[in-house]
Amino acid sequence: MSQSERQIAGGQRRTLRAMRERLLVMAEAWDGVDEFNRSQLTELSDQVEKVATELVADQDGSIG
After folding, report:
1. In 3D, which of 49, 53, 60 has the Cα closest to residue 9?
2. Distance of CA 7 to the CA centre of its chain
3. Residue whose C-alpha is closest to residue 14's, from 37, 47, 38, 48
4. What is the rounded distance in angstroms from the CA atom of residue 25 to the CA atom of residue 38?
5. Is this model's pTM higher than 0.85 or not?
6. pLDDT-derived band of residue 60, with 50, 70 and 90 as boundaries?
7. Which of 3, 18, 48, 49 is deepest in the core (most CB within 10 A)?
8. How confident is the model at residue 64, as a pLDDT?
9. Alpha-carbon distance 58 to 32, whole Å?
10. 50 φ/ψ angles, rounded to the nearest 5 degrees
11. Where are the alpha helices (DSSP H) in 1-64?
12. Residues 15-52: pLDDT tens digits?
């Protein structure tokens, strides 16, 4: 049985949010050591969250 668009989006949102948490932990390791690396990882985690937020099914069930 194949997954619905909503199920795919839900699974991918959970994966992306777990990745975001790992990126934030990595960024924290650079705090006080290398501001550039900390900043890059924090920005990447923000982008990951943006993608996760956009993976939502709209009213008619399509992914937007």
Report:
1. 53
2. 16
3. 48
4. 10
5. no
6. very low
7. 48
8. 52
9. 42
10. -60, -45
11. 5-30, 35-54
12. 999 999 999 999 999 999 999 999 999 999 999 999 99
Amino acid at 54: E
Closest-CA residue to 63 (of 5, 4, 3): 5
Token pair for 21:
């948490």
In this model, does residue 62 exceed pLDDT 80?
no
Q: Which amino acid is at 18?
A: A
Residues 26, 18: Cα–Cα separation, whole Å: 13
Sign (positive or negative) of CA dihedral 51, 53, 54, 60: positive
Which three-class secondary structure state does DSSP give residue 60? coil
Cβ contacts of 20 within 8 Å, gap of 6 or more:
45, 48, 49, 52
